[in-house]
Structure formats: structure tokens, C-alpha cells
Write a structure and sequence with these properties.
CATH topology of the largest domain in chain A: MetI-like fold
Number of domains of chain A: 2
Largest interface: A-B, 34 and 35 residues
Oligomer: heterodimer
Helix content of chain A: over 70%
Number of strands of chain B: 12
CATH class of the largest domain in chain A: Mainly Alpha
Radius of gyration of chain B: 20 Å
Strand content of chain B: 15-25%
Number of helices of chain A: 11
CATH architecture of the largest domain in chain A: Orthogonal Bundle
Order of helices and strands of chain B: EEEEHEEEHHHEHEHEEHE
Order of helices and strands of chain A: HHHHHHHHHHH
Distance between the termini of chain B: 33 Å
Chain lengths: ~260, ~300
């Protein structure tokens, strides 16, 4: 019985062994002088530093700043790209086809490389960071929305028409729900890209945010703070991804479970 | 005999195509429409409450004809009349059941059945009652809160039948509804369909590939020729009803009908096969159908 109980726990912890092993190595190596603790702070130092940053509330201010920008930029991208995608995919498929190469080209332009231009236009304030998010997330959302609208099964539309559904009904009751899962995939892709871009942008021109925290730590040579910021970015990025998946599975309940990791 | 329910009068339908050299149904008709003739002067009268099966080789236009009856496609010339009134488009006087079920995956079974009722503007409580009533009729009580992906093919098709019946159309148009099901499920659903038909007194037009299915179900079997689709013969099936017995299919009368229909159909199947291989050799004719909706301009299969 005891053995069973142990294998149970073992199964549950299996995913964590790698992380735990890594943390132990990380802790031991600088402590015993295998690597320079000046460059690689051991986890205990980082946690202690994170604790002080949390006590003063600084860490949360930076997290909130980054999150706020992400959500605002993302929100703006969603409310423009989704309707635009519906219009192009649904009403003007010819135009969508015609614009496709141009849009893929624009989508390939790294928002970060446009940052100097954005600064010229929008100055150094919040708008420029939000526009980075906007630029990096709007393209994947737009592409997937157009594709999603055009790939709603024709048989669904035919079936709705056979029951006398008009264009409005078909749009709201067939096209919209039918394309929702694919659109969500686009939004999730956009979120990931946007968050990465934001951190980079914050390193150049910001006075708050996790990217700024990295930059500031590096300028002042406060290495533990740099690690705190890096770990926070990773955790926040993961959290964001989980949040988007949760949102999707809450809104799209009708799909067969497909490995939500 | 009862009154005429559906009347199809000289229906012609032409597909727009590219690259159809060598195909004998490539035409330019009197209206100047150029393309592939799919339906060539189809005339058909169906009585109130009658069960008519439409049989023909692949690509003969039988599904197109059903789409025209349903108002989902328009003929290039000719008219469809229901109760003497010309058909202008789809309507809730006709319910269609498709081979691919076409259930909306984002709706529960109950809400799928309610779709037509919503369009009809029936209030929510009433919709639910009606949906549950038809769910019971097709033998799926208790499945109202399931989603389509949780159901087997046979169950999905039962739901599709319930959905088509729920808004109480007088005519049920069925486009190879059991074509994707395994043989056992198919037989069960055939018997179920006959029971439902006897309970509801609908007029049914049933497209199928299967001669056996047509004989077992229908009052009349209409045989169509290979493309261009014409009506080749119209056979009355005088088998006793209710046809719920499993051994009807092995009776001598059934065999006689099967033989008769197969003799009529054989040439057409051969012809359709020839056409198909010619098409492949001739670098594939791209069929350009009329759009299903403005949303979907490139895609729709008609045949």
C-alpha cells in the first residue's frame, strides 16, 4: 500500500523533477564557488531580493505596468483586427486575397525595429509601448480571423440557409461561433509575441515595467534584481498564456478537449 | 389519391465549368448559358404524404435537384411549385437533412433542434418543449444537453432529423442521410424513419445511392440518368406497409424490384464511370458552383 502511495506522489511530481534539479544545481554551483556568484546569483539570494521588492511594492508596480500595457494594446488589436478580419474574410474575399501578400509582409516586420519610428510619432510615453503591442498582435489576429471566417464549414451555412436563416442570423449564429476557436488561437499567438516585444520596448524607453526593471538592474549592476525581473517575466508570460487558454475554454465549451497544457 | 404537393416543371441546371472539351454534356443552351448540363428537363410530381426516393449514379444531379427543391440552388430554367406556389428560396415549409449531419458543434443537441424555431420566432419555453418532444420522437431522450461531438454518427443523424422536423415543415428533403453510417445503424434508422413518417405524415423526398434503401422506404422510386440528369423511370413500389419486418428485404417481390431497378440503373452507372474517367483525363473540370452565401464565395459542392 505504502508503495502505491509513493508511486502516486511520484507520478504527480514527475513534471517538477527537472525544475527542482535545476534549482538545486543553481543554488549549489555559486555557493560552493563553481561559478562566480557575482554573475549568477543563487536562488535564495534572488528570492530574498524579490521579497524586499515585494515588500516595498515595487515589483507589483512594474508587473502592473507591463500587464496594463499588454492588455490595453491587445484589447485595441482585438477590437480592430477581429471586425476587420470579418469584413475582409466575409464580405470582401477578393480584397483579402489581394491584400494578403502586403499583410504578410507587414506582419513580418518586427515591431521592435519600428520602435524608433514609433517614438518619432508618439514620443516616449505610454502610447508608444501600446503601439508596439498593437502592431505585433494585430497581424496574427487579423490573419487567423480572415482564415477562420473563410473556413467555416459550408455545410453549416447551407444548413442554416435551409432553415430560412438570413444574412444577419448566419453571421451571428453560424459564422461568429464557428470561427471563434480559430480566432482565439490567433489572439493567443498575438499575446505571446506582444508580451516579448513589450519587454524589449520597455528596456529602451520606459520608466516602469519589467523590461525597465531589467534595464535598470543592468545599468546599476544589481544582478539579483536582474534575475528577479527575468523570472517575473517568465512567470508572467506563462500566466498570460494560461489565462488566454482558460478564457478560451470558458468561452468555447463545445470542443473536444485537445490537450490543454 | 391526395393532392399534388411538389411539382417540378422542366428544370434545367447548368454548371459553369472550365476545360470540358470532349464531354458530351458541354452545351450552350438557348439562354446563352455555357457550361455543363447537370439537369436536363426534369419533371416530377409528388403527392401529399408520399415517400419518393431519388436514385441515380454519382454526379447525376440528384443532390442538385434536391437543393433546388430546397431553394438552396436555383434552376437555370423551369420552376418548382409547392402547393401550387412557385418556390423562391429556402423556407420553413421544407426541412432538409444532409448526409454530413450539419449539426452546429457549438450548440447543444437541444439548441441545435431549436435553430429553426428561433428563426421562426418561437419563444424560449415553447422552443424547449418542442425540442424535447422531437428528441423523444427520434429516441434520444436525455441527450438534450450533450454536444454533437459526444454522439455517434447514427445519433447525430437522428438529431438532424429531429431538427428538420421541429419547425414542422410539410416536406422533408433528405440528401443521402444514411450514406455515412454503417450497415446496421443504417437499417435501424431506415425503420425509425418509416415510423416517424407514419407518425408525422410528411411528404418525403429521399436521395440515395442504394437501390435496397429506396425500395424498402419509398412509395415511388425515381431513377435518374447519368449526367445530364433526366428522369429515366418512375417505379411504384407496391410492397405492403408498414414495412417494419426485417425479412421484407429477402422476399421474392423485393428481389423482383431490386432486379428491375438494377437493370434500369446499370447503363447509367457505366456511363457515369466513363464520364468520371474522361474528366480525370481531361485535366479535371473545375466546377464553379453558385456561392452558398456571400460569406463563402469559392466553396460549395452541388453534386
Amino acid at each position: 500500500m505504502a508503495k502505491n502511495w509513493l508511486t502516486d506522489i511520484n507520478d504527480k511530481l514527475l513534471n517538477w523533477y527537472g525544475i527542482v534539479g535545476f534549482l538545486i544545481l543553481w543554488q549549489i554551483a555559486p555557493t560552493i564557488g563553481l561559478i562566480d556568484p557575482q554573475f549568477i546569483s543563487p536562488p535564495t539570494t534572488i528570492i530574498a531580493y524579490a521579497w524586499t521588492l515585494m515588500e516595498t511594492g515595487d515589483l507589483f508596480i512594474h508587473m502592473a505596468a507591463s500587464l496594463q500595457r499588454t492588455f490595453l494594446g491587445l484589447f485595441l488589436a482585438v477590437i480592430t483586427a477581429v471586425p476587420l478580419g470579418f469584413i475582409l474574410g466575409g464580405w470582401f474575399p477578393g480584397v483579402a486575397k489581394f491584400l494578403r501578400p502586403l499583410m504578410s509582409l507587414l506582419g513580418q516586420i518586427n515591431a521592435f525595429s519600428l520602435f524608433p519610428i514609433f517614438i518619432l510619432f508618439f514620443g516616449i510615453g505610454e502610447v508608444v509601448k501600446i503601439s508596439i503591442i498593437y502592431w505585433s498582435s494585430i497581424w496574427p489576429i487579423l490573419f487567423t480571423t480572415i482564415a477562420a471566417v473563410q473556413h467555416v464549414e459550408p455545410i453549416f451555412i447551407k444548413s442554416a440557409r435551409s432553415m430560412g436563416a438570413g444574412r444577419g442570423t448566419i453571421f451571428f449564429k453560424v459564422i461568429l461561433p464557428g470561427s471563434a476557436p480559430a480566432i482565439f488561437t490567433g489572439i493567443r499567438m498575438g499575446t505571446n509575441v506582444a508580451f516579448l516585444m513589450l519587454i524589449a520596448a520597455e528596456m529602451i524607453g520606459a520608466s516602469a515595467g519589467l523590461g525597465w526593471l531589467v534595464h535598470n538592474a543592468s545599468m546599476n549592476n544589481v544582478i539579483p534584481r536582474l534575475y528577479v525581473a527575468t523570472v517575473s517575466i517568465a512567470l508572467l508570460g506563462m500566466g498570460l498564456n494560461y489565462f488566454m487558454r482558460w478564457l478560451e475554454s470558458t468561452l468555447v465549451t463545445w470542443k473536444e478537449e485537445t490537450a490543454v497544457e | 389519391m391526395m393532392s399534388t404537393k411538389i411539382k417540378a416543371e422542366s428544370i434545367y441546371r447548368i454548371y459553369k465549368v472550365r476545360n470540358v472539351e470532349g464531354d458530351n454534356s458541354h452545351i450552350t443552351n438557348h439562354n446563352g448559358h455555357e457550361g455543363l448540363l447537370a439537369l436536363d428537363n426534369v419533371n416530377l410530381e409528388i403527392k401529399q404524404g408520399e415517400f419518393v426516393a431519388l436514385v441515380g449514379p454519382s454526379g447525376c444531379g440528384k443532390s442538385t435537384f434536391l437543393d433546388i427543391l430546397g431553394g438552396l440552388a436555383t434552376p437555370n430554367s423551369g420552376d418548382i411549385y409547392i402547393d401550387g406556389k412557385p418556390v423562391k428560396g429556402p423556407g420553413l415549409d421544407r426541412g432538409i437533412v444532409f448526409q454530413g449531419y450539419a449539426l452546429f458543434p457549438w450548440r447543444t443537441i437541444q439548441h441545435n433542434i431549436e435553430f429553426g424555431l428561433e428563426i421562426k420566432g418561437i419563444p424560449k419555453n415553447e422552443r424547449k418543449d418542442i425540442a424535447l418532444k422531437y428528441l423523444k420522437l427520434v429516441g434520444l431522450e436525455g441527450f438534450e444537453n450533450r454536444y454533437p461531438y459526444e454522439l455517434s454518427g447514427g445519433m447525430k443523424q437522428r438529431v438532424a432529423i429531429a431538427r428538420a422536423l421541429a419547425f414542422d415543415p410539410e416536406i422533408l428533403l433528405m440528401d443521402e442521410p444514411f450514406g455515412a453510417l454503417d450497415a446496421q445503424t443504417r437499417e435501424v434508422l431506415q425503420i425509425e424513419l418509416l415510423r416517424i413518417w407514419e407518425e408525422t405524415h410528411k411528404t418525403i423526398v429521399f436521395v440515395t445511392h442504394s437501390i435496397d434503401e429506396a425500395i424498402f422506404l419509398a412509395d415511388r422510386v425515381v431513377i435518374m440518368t447519368a449526367r445530364p440528369g433526366k428522369i429515366k423511370s418512375d417505379i411504384r413500389i407496391d410492397l405492403p406497409r408498414p414495412r417494419l419486418e426485417g425479412d421484407l428485404k429477402s422476399s421474392p417481390e423485393f428481389a423482383r424490384y431490386r432486379h428491375e431497378l438494377w437493370e434500369l440503373l446499370r447503363d447509367e452507372v457505366d456511363k457515369a464511370e466513363e464520364q468520371a474517367s474522361e474528366n480525370i483525363r481531361g485535366a479535371a473540370a473545375h466546377q464553379e458552383e453558385k456561392p452558398a452565401a456571400a460569406w463563402q464565395p469559392q466553396k460549395q459542392s452541388a453534386v
